[in-house]
Amino acid sequence: MKRRYVTTDVFTERMFGGNPLAVMLDAQGLSTDDMQAIALEFNYSETSFVFPPDDARHTAKVRIFTPRTEVPFAGHPNVGTAFVLAREERFASAASCGAFVFEEAAGLVPLTLLREHGAVIGAELKAPEALSRHSVVSRETAAACLSLDATDVATTVHAPQIVSVGLPFLAVELASREALRRSKPNIAAHANLLPLDGADAIFAYWREPAAASEMVLHARTFSPLDGIVEDPATGSACAATIALLATLMVRPRDQLAWRIHQGVDMGRPSLLLGRTLLRDGQLAAHIGGRCVAMLDGSLNL
Questions:
Q1: What is the total count of domains within the chain?
Q2: I need a labelling partner for 111 at 20 to 30 A (CA). Which of 52, 60, 154, 245 fits?
Q3: Residue 225 CB burial class (10 angstroms; 0-12, 13-18, ≥19)
Q4: 140 sits in which H/E element
Q5: Domain shared by 136 and 253, yes or no
Q6: Alpha carbon of residue 279 to chain centroid
Q7: Are residues 41 and 141 in the same domain?
Q8: Closest CA to 165 of 232, 238, 224, 217
Q9: Which residues lie across from 291 on neighbouring strands?
Q10: What is the CATH number of the domain that holds 174?
Q11: How many DSSP H helices and E strands does the chain contain?
Q12: 151 with 44, same domain?
């Protein structure tokens, strides 16, 4: 039986940039083992599988797999899946409204379609959970995981900490862009520390000096224990980190724009555009970006 798939590069405006994603458009009848095997075959950071929604008011149910495991939520699979479905005839009616809602293990994920000259060019998601903060890690331990010295880890704003808005990561702020460039995963150190509070990946970032219009981060994500040495663009980690930083501001702002550059040091430059919104004491994190259609094919199962 043939199963159609589409691939897209996410968080980029050009082919062969961003984070590649495979979207299985009709996953009905596939077992969890089937989906895991397909995700391993593609060997992308994630592969998404589209099912009819449990609630007809929603667009689709989406399950997301890394090469080794299923995850409850992830950034680029949501943005990329929304982009792919918006180009499919059977989702034309929902796309015309400009918004999708995906059912996922972490909860409902609302998405807004991004258009340019009438064409869908990407999407923006709202994280399904409020920020949660978990274990704090010493700067020495975090530095060892990144093959750096402890002095390369900045702790003025926050210590290395597990954070989540649907999928947990260890967020580590670095003291310089040069330290970020030198970062590489030490697998033994990762194995000694992770998984921790459900996190098996490290999101390392450096902040540019604050500007009035937006905050700019440069980032890398390492997840060697999950078969992903480096992820080109990690929307879920970006969303959790900007939520953390917005929460820790001395003067919290009702709305703040974020620009995150990732994948540059591995040759797949990605641009993630974030927003943090503070309403009635509740902070919401949004992450979006452009996508480029790549492959359209079928699997013979």
A1: 2
A2: 245
A3: middle
A4: helix 139-145
A5: yes
A6: 23
A7: no
A8: 238
A9: 10
A10: 3.10.310.10
A11: 7, 17
A12: no
Q: Which two tokens stand for residue 277?
A: 């919104």
pTM of the predicted model as reported, rounded to 2 decimal places: 0.95
Q: 174 and 259 share a domain?
A: yes
- Active-site hit among 13, 41, 46, 173: 46
One digit per residue, pLDDT tens: the chain, 301 residues? 889 999 999 999 999 999 999 999 999 999 999 999 999 999 999 999 999 999 999 999 999 999 999 999 999 999 999 999 999 999 999 999 999 999 999 999 999 999 999 999 999 999 999 999 999 999 999 999 999 999 999 999 999 999 999 999 999 999 999 999 999 999 999 999 999 999 999 999 999 987 767 999 999 999 999 989 999 999 999 999 999 999 999 777 889 999 999 999 999 999 999 999 999 889 999 999 999 999 999 999 8
**Cβ proximity of 262 and 234 under 8 Å:** yes
The reply to whether 39 and 121 lie within a common domain is yes
Classify residue 216 as exposed, middle or buried by CB count within 10 Å of its CB (0-12, 13-18, 19+): middle
Per DSSP, which regions of 94-237 are E strands? Answer: 99-104, 107-116, 119-126, 132-136, 161-164, 169-173, 202-207, 215-223, 228-231
| Same domain membership, residue 277 and residue 148 | yes
Do 196 and 52 share a domain, yes or no?
Answer: no
- Has 46 been annotated as catalytic? yes
Domain hosting 174: range is 132-286
Beta bridge partners of 221: 203, 231
